[in-house]
Amino acid sequence: MSYPTRAARAVCLSFLALLCAAPAATAADEGWSVAPAGGGRPSFYAEGAPGTALRDTVSVTNRTSHPVDVRLSGTGVPVTFADAEIRVPARTRADIPFTVAVPERAAPGDRPGSIVVRDGDGRSESVPLLLRIGGPELSALTVEKVAVRGDRITYDLVNRGTTDLVPTLSVHVDGVFGTLLDRAPRTLEVELPPGRRLHLTEPWPDRPALDAVDVRLTVSATGGARDTARASARFVPWGGVAAGGALAVGTAALAVVRRRRRPRTPEPARESAREQAELTGAAT
């Protein structure tokens, strides 16, 4: 075989070797990936009633030529993994089971979340997870701990149902001589999730200085939620009372001093009276 022929054959073999090696290099450069187990699913979907546990599996595929250590976590929904830290060998797929726990008092509806996988170099990938919570929708709330404190009315709102609430408040206050405050229902700028308690304040800058009042708060929300709570308060101008008391005490003290300074009228001597009696008897 001539030299040119040998050289041409060597170039061809080198070119074929490069062609054969190219896919392997490309696969090695792809690194690792994460997806729902079983294939064919772009994301996770779980559906259940409050208090149930839903199970699924996530796959981590390592296409590199070396092991990869990864950590798994969940966002948006409560997720527990069979093993949250694993080592995936080279050119291997690891399937990790996990459980989604639906909270006991969760409101019906959809909750978005994700499964997140992160390696030691800081690289991360995630897969969306949608949790659909079933069950009846219940709208209920209570008004608690109503009190008058200074120039404001304080109270607590508690969501006793299974749906988010945007409450509406009306305020009515009666005094000794009639109505002092009557505020029409208005929507509060708060959102009350299921099971949540909020401490709120209603301003009352022009409350009376002297009165006995009865306060009534009525709160309602969509879905038929409604509750009423009452409280009583007594307003006394203690500054004026203290000044009046001091004046009374001062007046009494002055009267005592004047009485002590008044001159006393001397009593007639007993001896003189006795002598007068004897003289009178002698004349008789």
By CATH reckoning, the class of the largest domain would read Mainly Beta
Q: What is the makeup of the main sheet?
A: 5 strands, mixed
> What class, by secondary structure content?
alpha+beta
Portion of residues within helices: 10-25%
What is the number of domains?
A: 2
Protein name: DUF916 domain-containing protein
Keywords: Membrane, Signal, Transmembrane, Transmembrane helix
What does this structure look like?
Keywords: Membrane, Signal, Transmembrane, Transmembrane helix. Residues 264-277 have a biased composition (Basic and acidic residues). The protein is of the alpha+beta class and 284 residues long. The protein folds into two domains: 26-133, Immunoglobulins (Immunoglobulin-like); 141-235, Sandwich (Immunoglobulin-like), CATH 2.60.40. Helix content is 23%, strand content 46%. It is built from three helices and 16 strands. It has helices at residues 3-29, 238-261, 270-283; strands at 32-36, 44-48, 53-62, 68-75, 79-81, 85-88, 92-101, 109-119, 124-133, 141-149, 152-159, 168-175, 178-187, 197-203, 211-221, 225-235. The strands form four sheets. A five-stranded mixed beta sheet has the order 2-9-8-4-6, with no helix packed on it. It has a four-stranded antiparallel beta sheet with strand order 1-3-7-5, with no helix packed on it. Strand 8 (109-119) and strand 9 form a beta hairpin. The longest helix is centred in the first third of the chain and has 27 residues, at 3-29. The protein is elongated. It starts with a helix and ends with a helix.
